[in-house]
Write a structure and sequence with these properties.
223 residues, Rossmann fold, 6 strands, 37% helix
Length: 223
């Protein structure tokens, strides 16, 4: 298991007004969170004060992340890749552009996201839950999950980490939200609308040991 940061450049490219999200008069935090947790239009393409505010494909945005993962894990044509929490499949699509012939699969809890995913790979995506992956043991050459598993309650987080370990071979990677100090903790609480597992890095590492997760990981912080 190693700490490998593939995501900071994408995460830090977004400007966030933490207090505005909490205090917005039309979409106060509880209302925004209730709408976001339906995982539908409001979460992906609704008002920015709720969540993404329009999650659209931007050519090249995910290419550096895809390229770094491909190079690090030695992904080649014929390899099988699973994205747990794939959303609209933009990262998987970038991987297929860089490695023609790779087999990609994605699951997401959001029916809306799958229906509005990238046309070119929609056939390989399905609605599913991270706690119950309908794939055989050790089926994938790379399994990854990016900014997804922190949205689970503890009892489901345990199941999801064990499932991720089960379906992967050697190469596994996940990225989750975390905090290192009170400022980052407050910012995370202000900004998030779907997070359930509020863990420090040390607590996440406890989870990895508890569930037998042996893959790589990284954290994003709200500085």
């Amino acid at each position: 298991m190693a700490y490998i940061d593939f995501l900071s450049s994408v995460h830090k490219s977004t400007v966030r007004d933490y207090l505005a999200r909490v205090n917005d008069p039309e979409y106060p935090k509880p209302k925004a969170a209730e709408l976001a947790r339906q995982w539908g239009f409001d979460y992906w393409d609704g008002d920015r004060r709720i969540c993404y505010g329009g999650y659209r494909y931007m050519p090249g945005r995910w290419a550096p992340v895809a390229r770094a993962m491909i190079e690090h894990y030695g992904i080649k044509p014929g390899d099988k890749i699973l994205d747990i929490g794939c959303g609209k499949g933009f990262l998987l699509y970038e991987i297929t552009l860089l490695v023609p012939g790779v087999e990609v699969y994605g699951i997401d809890i959001s029916d809306y996201a799958i229906k509005n995913s990238k046309d070119e790979i929609r056939a390989y995506l399905r609605v599913g839950n991270a706690t119950d992956l309908s794939f055989p043991d050790h089926a994938f050459d790379l399994v990854y999950s990016i900014t997804t598993l922190h949205n689970l309650h503890n009892y489901d987080l345990d199941k999801a980490l064990r499932e991720m370990e089960r379906v992967g071979k050697e190469n596994k990677y996940l990225c989750v939200e975390s905090y290192r100090n009170e400022t980052e903790k407050a910012n995370l609480l202000y900004w998030q609308v779907t997070c359930e597992a509020f863990c420090t890095p040390e607590e996440w590492e406890w989870w990895f040991r508890q569930t037998g997760y042996t893959g790589d990981h990284s954290f994003i912080y709200f500085e």
